[in-house]
Amino acid sequence: MPETTILFIGDVVGGLGRRTLRALLPALLEEYAPTFVVVNGENAAGGVGITPRTADDLFAAGADAITLGNHTYRHREVYPYLDGERPIVRPANFLRSQPGRGTTVVERDGVRLGVVNLSGNLFMKAGRPAFAEADAALGDLRDRADHVLVDVHAEATSEKVAMGWYLDGRVTAVVGTHTHVPTADARVLPGGTAYISDVGMTGPRGGVIGVRRDQAIEAMVTQMPVRFETSKDDPWINAVVIRASRPRRADAIAQVLRAWPGGA
Ligand SMILES: [Fe+2]
Ligand SMILES: [Fe+2]
Known about the structure:
By secondary structure, the protein is α/β, with parallel strands linked by helices. The protein is built from 6 helices and 14 strands. Strand 4, helix 3 (79-82) and strand 5 form a beta-alpha-beta unit. 51% of the residues are buried. The site of one fe (ii) ion (FE2) has 6 residues, from loops.
């Protein structure tokens, strides 16, 4: 089993997030030489959802696979794209009738990486239970993947921590997304699964999880609807790098949190 490195990049937010990715990814590719790059793209188009053009943009920037989340269906034009051939996944525990699929397999250097997307059920809209669907997804990937990365897109840290323990020893990595704020708990669990509750986002740290802070604050202060725009202030890339040398087990996970001073 060749040494495998997976670079997973947290929710790319809007055009600034995509520019940050394009600006900072080449140096990360040089530094970490990842076998696979997986990018959460659920906020790639204007801060909410993804379109075929923005998905193509992420693939062109270097993504081998794209994961999504609660904003998957914001743009109708992406529905056929989700059912197409590209390795892009939406939460597996959405309804089967909804566009797209929840697992995909990408291959490089003779290594097959299964990518699974799950949505939390606490404070999130997902039609089916995440834990049962995680088992089903692993069954689907049983003979088709050397490594498995699970992006659990969820609001509640409790649900993500529980999913990490539930899948420990069965997958290479469980990485949390959605809150846009990186957590300080990256580690390899005893069974060999790399885990982090939230990777964070690739976008403006100077806003409120991606939104212009004046607008987010106005909405909270006035309790009235406010039109939100993506912040342009202080872009960062938030990611994790996972190293693995045995099938479906990780040796190490480390956070990659880097500012893009030129992008502000
Ligand atoms: Fe997000
Ligand atoms: Fe989300």
